[in-house]
Amino acid sequence: MSDNSADRRAIVQPGGATLTYTILVRGFTAPVRLVGRDGPVIASFDLTLTVVHPGQGFPDDIAAVMSYEDIVEELRRLCAEPSISGPDYLAESAADLCLAHAKVQRASVAVELPSVTEDGAGTGASITRMQQNSLSSF
User: Fold this and answer.
1) Reduced to 3 DSSP states, what percent helix, strand and coil does the chain have, rounded to the nearest 5?
2) DSSP assignment, residue 35?
3) Is residue 10 domain-resident?
4) Which CATH number is 70's domain given?
5) In a domain, 9, yes or no
6) Closest alpha carbon to 58 in 107, 14, 15, 103
7) How many distinct structural domains can be found in the chain?
8) Does 88 map to a domain?
9) Which of 16, 31, 61, 70 is 20 to 30 A from 85, alpha carbon to alpha carbon?
């Protein structure tokens, strides 16, 4: 995906806040191999991304907007790592990969893993991170 956001000016709303939109990725699942567990388990992810709006009159072109498909592909690569320490690692890594995209200003990530036993509680982690150079406060 092309990220030519430097070629556009962000739309600023009254009060100085940058115009954004939200991308939701809900119920993404993938097998992961956890340290200390035999065989893969299914990790579940929910993401909420606050993304800079591409501006008025942006072209009907995937390069003009943030594509959730890029994030999903990167999540698949993350989950394919050979030995994952746990849900906190997955949540932090997922937030980092989202914020690596210049258009993403804020990423909230929740990860859940199933219980080790059939009747036990699952584990999870949730994290919210913002770009260091965020154009506005949320």
Assistant:
1) 20, 35, 45
2) T
3) no
4) 3.30.1130.10
5) no
6) 103
7) 1
8) yes
9) 70
CA distance 108 to 119: 29
Domain extent for 20: 16-130
pLDDT at 1: 37
DSSP secondary structure string for all residues of 104-128: EEEEEEEEEE--SSTTSPPEEEEEE
- Cβ-in-10-Å burial (0-12, 13-18, 19+) of 56 comes to exposed
HSE (CB half, 13 Å, CA atoms) of 1?
Answer: 19
In a domain, 126, yes or no: yes
What are the backbone angles phi and psi of residue 4, rounded to the nearest 5°?
Answer: -100, 40
Which tokens is 35 given? 């340290």
Which candidate, 20, 11, 4, places its Cα nearest to that of 105?
Answer: 20
> What is the CB neighbour count within 10 angstroms for residue 1?
12
- Backbone angle region of 113, left / alpha / beta, with phi > 0 → left and psi within -120 to 50 → alpha: beta
Q: Which helix (H) or strand (E) holds 10?
A: none
Question: Rounded mean pLDDT of 110-131?
Answer: 90
